Amino acid sequence: MGDEERREQPVKLASILRLGSEFPALTILIVLSSVGFLLGTYAFSSVATLSLESLEAGSFWRLITPIFIHFGLMHFIFNMFWLIYFGSKLERGTGSIQLFLLVIVIGLISNISQYLWSGSDQFGGMSGSIYGLLGYLYAYNKVVPRGIYFVPPELFWLMFGWLIFCASGILEILVGIRVANASHLCGLIVGSLLGIIFGLLKFDRNLK
Question: Residue 89 and residue 94: Cα distance in Å, rounded?
């Protein structure tokens, strides 16, 4: 190992530690999703322990754990990219606890809606929560403009268009990919409503 490589290693480690300290909630969510990705992709038989299966046994934590399951590398990378993009805005703007609670609450409601809509427990992914973060940022910024929360309208409508495209069933017909459409739509609605509520609360405080 050369001297340059030895110098680079501490720098890379310091960068990772700095990111972890700056975005602790995002770091925890990514680590949990990484475990879910490994289980969903390489140990599929173990996914049942994280799915909504057997809720009657009292394993109510299964209501939230499906958001961490990811099936395949592209599914994982795609979701982590958007989680970092939207999540970093929120963690900087409102703090780690609120970001983590938003992801968990939106994910919980999205999981339940997908289960009730499809009647199947075979689904997973962070995309319901990601659509919720998109809706939250977009709605909040409409009520109380805040630069750090800004999401380009083109991006919002692009992702909304993707939601509609997936819901049309074309993707499943063409490539056989099943999409948790109810989770996406419910996440977007819940996140938008929360963004409006918290935005109005902020607006009211600003008036006082």
Answer: 8
Enumerate residues 6+ apart whose C-beta is below 8 A from 110. Answer: 67, 128, 129, 131, 132, 180, 182, 183, 184, 186, 187, 190
- What Rg do the C-alpha atoms of the chain give, in angstroms? 18
Residues 191, 136 contacting (CB under 8 angstroms): yes
Q: What residue ranges define each of the domains in the chain, with the CATH number in brackets? A: 3-207 (1.20.1540.10)
Following DSSP, what letter does each residue of 149-167 receive, concatenated? G---HHHHHHHHHHHHHHH
Catalytic residue IDs:
127, 184
pLDDT tens for 65-117 read: 889 988 889 889 999 999 999 999 999 999 999 999 999 999 999 998 988 88
pLDDT in tens, 173-197: 777 677 888 999 999 999 999 999 9
Q: What is the reported pTM?
A: 0.85
Question: Which residue, among 98, 90, 131, has the nearest Cα to 113 in the 3D structure?
Answer: 131
Residue-by-residue DSSP string for 71-91: -SHHHHHHHHHHHHHHHHHHH
Is the pLDDT reported for residue 56 higher than 70?
Answer: no
